[in-house]
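Replying to the earlier thread about multi-chain prediction with a worked example.

Input:
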Amino acid sequence: MSGPFHLIVTDTSPLITLALAEALDVLLRPSIPVSIPDAVYIEATRIRTAAGASRIVEWMNDHLDRVRIVPTEVGVDQQRRIEEGRTIRALGEQAALEVLERFMSSNPQAEALLLFEDSDIARRRAIVDERVSLISTGDFLRELEAARLIQSADYILEQAARSGRNVERQHQVTSDGDTRSRFRRQLQRTDDDPRTQ
Amino acid sequence: MEQTKATGEALGTQEREELLRGYASGTISWRELRQRGFADYVEVLAGLGEIGLRPPMAPMEGPSRSARERGRALLRRLLREAAKS
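Result:
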């Protein structure tokens, strides 16, 4: 096969979908390095519901030889925005473009496969560079299904939605629990406070 | 674009469900959901799970079609080579 290939993850959604479906390993199936721009990684792992986030961190640590976080200028800007309490949305894609540019200019033989979210890929402008190919999460899973490496693309996507619902419910229960225990503590304090008696 | 609403939860239930149904059917993108107030993708998956839908798979059409076809062909080739080694 000609030239070094890289899979570049351009958005948080493929990572979160695969993490919740417990299927992140599918990204390793093509046996090429996986690059995750720092801004994508930060956005995916700092979300309030930690289930997907902790799976992503764990998975990355298990495969440091094949998956790497790529530092970018956009990532530096993202850190600044986080510190200033500003929105960090959609910086992942900008960071991915920075990674792509650096990767392509580093080697004239380099070829990149950009992993996109399905609903965004349909509206993308055409990529002119023949060394850059696009793939959506759905396309990726369909190819694995065709190669009989997974049983069903649909199943993985359904599993992600089902798991997301459970995570959200768990989050709500925890939030309700926190509220209840705070309320109980407050009542306790009120009972103990001589000023209220 | 700056966030206009705190989270997707700040949307009305009906509006939220309509957006999620639009997303699942491919008429609204994840980018648009973000602009309409969904804070993160877990929230989107959770919302889809609640109404019994799953994330969309994009049909092979649109301006990036040839780059996607190239991507699928490349992935197929890589998978074949990985299976051999």
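Chain A touches chain B through 64 residues (CB under 8 Å).

Feel free to reuse this layout for your own posts.
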